[in-house]
Amino acid sequence: MDDTRLNHDALPERTVIQLESSPRYVVLFNPLEQERLSVVSLLVSSPRVRVFSEEGQPLAVQISAHWSSATDMVPDVYQVSVPTRLPALGLGVLQLQLGLDGHRTLPSSVRVYLHGRQLTVSRHEAFPLRVIDSGTSDFALSNHYMQVWFSGLSGLLKVKGQGGSQRRACVALGPDPGEGTWLGWAPSGQQGTLGMASWGSSSVPSQGAGLTCRCGARGQGCVSWQSIRRVDEEQEQRVDMEFLVYGTRTSKDKSGAYLFLPDGEAQPYVPKDPPVLRVTEGPFFSEVVAYYEHVHQVVRLYNLPGVEGLSLDVSSLVDIRDYVNKELALRIHTDIDSQGTFFTDLNGFQVQPRQYLKKLPLQANFYPMPVMAYIQDAQSRLTLHTAQALGVSSLHDGQLEVILDRRLMQDDNRGLGQGLKDNKRTCNHFRLLLERRTLGSEVPDGHSTSYPSLLSHLTSTSLNAPALALPVAKRQPPDPGLRSFHPLASSPPCDFHLLNLRTLQAEDDTLPSAEAALILHRKGFDCGLEAKNLGFNCTTSQGKVALGSLFQGLDVGFLQPTSLTLLYPLASPSNSTDIYLEPMEVATFRLRLG
């Protein structure tokens, strides 16, 4: 594989490919049953690199520096990123060679915001680099689908679409910081009739009775928020992030491995030093890295059609080993009118609504999030996809909050016998997806279940099953040319997921039998969310799959439905290879390929 570990509890590090005049091969594996277009990033020993396809055609690549810290480049290690189309469940081949193709090797540009800190930034002649000592202005990254805004001070997310406009929240200031009366939206320095409602540091404004206010007038303040507007629509959406810290109670009963007993609402995370921001822009992806004392956050925007370009890739590297009884959380603010309801999945199989209940203690409103959580209203849905199981809640309308890591010094008397003090540097990986509802579709109210959209399902599987890079070891003499592998004649319908396909053990022999087990899952999805301009081919077939024509060069000899565990046949073997599954069903089949 492309990853190595220095020891058992270290984070994986990618292998550096030593370039030579002769080609170095990299095999790419797509573990999904759908064809995918992905940006594959590899580490190489020189910025003078040429990448070729299996047939020897030169490919356009984005070359970037590889960083060991906020300001230090790793010497003689560079990142090359290439968009690659991979067959379903198949293998692709890349050739890497030492050389320079100025038309196809495209360098990334880098900006580093130091915010007054006296730090030395390493440079390399291959990459345009600009150091900004004290920049405070917001900045944006964009692709063909959306425009993403970031705070120039914090480096955290604010999102809007092309053509979006900044709005300012006008508040009558109260005696305490972060408190006041919400007066509404107003352009700076302009007067208008606005809504009125209570406003606090942890609440989302809502509209109410009309009131005249001037943003910036005496006794009033302005809180700048940005919005999101997708390229193909006029509607804007506010989305921004912040880090928070929970403490624990001062009483005898405190938080531990099993209990979450906070000392009240979360407090804003306040680092000792302002963050260092590094902005990388290139043709295939752009990213913003914010280096805080306890967390490094990367928000990446891919400039690709399809699943990867329709959502934001967010990762956080958390290190709270110097915390004492603290828990670090990430909160996402939006102006979605969620009305106290949010949705979490049950082990990745189905989604269930959760209701925030103020009468319950704060910890009782947190739920497990194995795969995803989302909030929605009549117009929009915001989904947070995760690659690791975490705790999530929505303590106010329009918010999603996820616990990133916990460090607790005492046992909670639930059987572990110790606190949580063995923290490591931990990477959390997410995707943030904003979707719109189609005109005329209604949000189901009062149902005990909910469903992600088809795009949301594909985003989740893409996040949890990334393309794998396998560098081929150098051999003398070199191996004959490697070839790609296409095991499927065509991709199955988008709402089908291949859970397993494996050979079965023979009853009287240690060798495998000629039969195989096939386990399929048909996903249920919400048809009320827009699926236009997705940039990739995705079809459904009303639950029907023709297994006889699915596998490349193989015929299905017989097909027999069985119980999920393969212990009991549910019907006699059939010559027909067409199957049908209801939504949300998982089915197991015994088949023979030949």
How many beta-strand runs? 46
Give the C-level CATH assignment of the largest domain: Mainly Beta
Largest sheet: 11 strands, mixed
- CATH architecture field of the largest domain: Distorted Sandwich
- Tell me the distance between the termini: 30 Å
- The name of the CATH topology of the largest domain is Beta-galactosidase, Chain A, domain 5
Q: Tell me the strand order in the biggest sheet.
A: 13-12-27-28-29-30-39-36-35-32-33
Report the principal-axis shape. Answer: globular
Which superfamily, in CATH terms, is the homologous superfamily of the largest domain? Answer: Golgi alpha-mannosidase II, domain 4
Strand content: 35-45%
Q: What number is the mean pLDDT?
A: 85
Residues in helix, %: under 10%
Count of domains: 4
InterPro entries: Gal_mutarotase_sf_dom, Glyco_hydro_38_C, Glyco_hydro_b, Glycosyl_Hydrlase_38
GO biological process, one term: mannose metabolic process
Domain Glycosyl hydrolase family 38 C-terminal: 228-414
GO molecular function: alpha-mannosidase activity; carbohydrate binding
